[in-house]
């Protein structure tokens, strides 16, 4: 099992999201066999991007990204200070207020979970095929 932890800073969310994607790519490239297919790696990076974006936008403006490689899955976990859990909502096709990320994550992942943390906040996690 391999784990990496990276913080996504609140100062400039655009940079933090790009940094999270770069961290995920580097993490996946560093894995030993079995290597991931390009499509599976792209899916992990997309889920990282969505979860970090949601945490920064809706979870208090700061978060921590944790990636863990298990034999058959990659676990993406994002910790943020908000106690509000993600919810399904109708995507906004005209106003640009979102609603696409969480449904996409739940469709791409084999499993998702939201865990409230004793110290406050929550962890949103997704397990994806390796």
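Q: What amino acid sequence fits the structure above?
A:
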């Amino acid at each position: 099992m391999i784990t990496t932890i990276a913080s996504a800073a609140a100062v400039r969310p655009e940079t933090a999201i790009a940094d999270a994607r770069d961290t995920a790519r580097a993490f996946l490239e560093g894995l030993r066999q079995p290597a991931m297919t390009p499509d599976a790696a792209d899916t992990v990076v997309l889920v990282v991007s969505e979860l970090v974006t949601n945490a920064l936008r809706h979870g208090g403006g700061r978060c921590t990204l944790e990636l863990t490689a298990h034999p058959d899955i990659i676990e993406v976990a994002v910790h943020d200070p908000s106690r509000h859990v993600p919810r399904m909502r109708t995507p906004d096709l005209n106003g640009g207020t979102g609603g696409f990320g969480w449904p996409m994550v739940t469709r791409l992942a084999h499993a998702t979970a939201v865990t409230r943390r004793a110290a406050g906040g929550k962890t949103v996690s997704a397990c994806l095929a390796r």
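Q: And what stands out in the fold?
A: The longest strand covers residues 73-80.
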